[in-house]
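To illustrate the input format used throughout this study, we show a single complete record. The first block contains the structure-token representation of the backbone; no residue identities are included at this stage. The design step must infer an amino acid for every position from geometry alone.
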């Protein structure tokens, strides 16, 4: 058995937490794998350093060390390689990275003993054919104006049928996992992470009746950045990959063919996180 560690240097800047996990895995007779870019910093450990693709292929599970953003960045890779992932939280909230540093001593042995369950999280596939842009997002896909100095017009279709038109600062398409992020801040609902749905939430819409809409995950959504918009629109997937859409360009949204398997130790962790990390803030 081997476990791939993917640390975020911005969070675990001196790799102290990563060293703790490597030691725990080694003491349990489990090989810790890391991408070879970490070999110079962790040469004194018993970790094995491999090219990233080879490390993914060889690993049984993945542990990210950072926060939700760290897990979001590697989620498409984990899903593509079909590797379950556990996030160790060094960030502020930690809805997806559900293992706190203080829980490592308890949760790593449970991980190695197989005392956990896997929860599937579906992801969004966003495509802009005009720019040959295609990205997978675990949390959300966001459209917003170049300058945000004035609203843009967006038209939404579901399976080719007109649904709504928004004049707004932007539009958020979120998965259930991402419903507690940007979509929630913009007035969207909190969705059960297991629900096979996606939510479309306008950002600061100019209209009293512009409300979030929830769609079945098997729908095909089309969002058109209207031709009369004054400037380009940006599309981003999980706040990372960006596409510059010109007026008239079309964004297609479907559920990604691959899903992410999250390692959890309690089936109610999402609701525990909502109560402790949202309601008490």
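Output of the design step:
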């Amino acid at each position: 058995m081997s476990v791939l560690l993917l640390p975020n240097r911005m969070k675990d800047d001196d790799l102290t937490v990563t060293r703790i996990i490597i030691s725990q895995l080694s003491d349990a007779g489990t090989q810790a794998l890391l991408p070879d870019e970490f070999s110079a910093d962790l040469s004194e450990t018993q970790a094995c350093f491999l090219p990233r693709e080879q490390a993914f292929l060889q690993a049984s599970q993945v542990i990210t060390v950072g926060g939700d953003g760290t897990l979001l960045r590697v989620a498409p890779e984990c899903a593509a390689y079909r590797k379950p992932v556990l996030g160790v939280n060094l960030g502020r909230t930690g809805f997806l990275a559900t293992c706190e540093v203080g829980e490592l001593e308890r949760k790593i042995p449970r991980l190695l003993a197989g005392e956990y369950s896997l929860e599937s999280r579906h992801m969004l596939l966003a495509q802009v054919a005009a720019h040959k842009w295609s990205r997978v997002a675990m949390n959300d896909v966001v459209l917003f104006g170049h300058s945000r100095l004035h609203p843009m017009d967006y038209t939404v279709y579901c399976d080719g049928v007109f649904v709504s038109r928004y004049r707004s600062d932007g539009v958020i398409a979120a998965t259930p996992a991402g419903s507690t992020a940007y979509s929630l801040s913009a007035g969207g609902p909190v969705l059960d992470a297991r629900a096979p749905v996606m939510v479309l939430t306008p950002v600061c819409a100019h209209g009293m009746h512009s409300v979030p809409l929830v769609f079945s995950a098997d729908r095909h959504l089309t969002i058109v950045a209207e031709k009369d918009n004054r400037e380009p629109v940006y599309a981003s997937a999980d706040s990372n990959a960006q596409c510059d859409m010109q007026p008239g360009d079309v964004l297609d949204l479907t559920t990604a063919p691959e899903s992410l398997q999250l390692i959890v130790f309690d089936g109610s962790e999402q609701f525990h996180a909502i109560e402790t990390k949202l309601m008490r803030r």
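Structural context for interpreting the output: The mean pLDDT is 92. The first strand starts at residue 2 and ends at 7.
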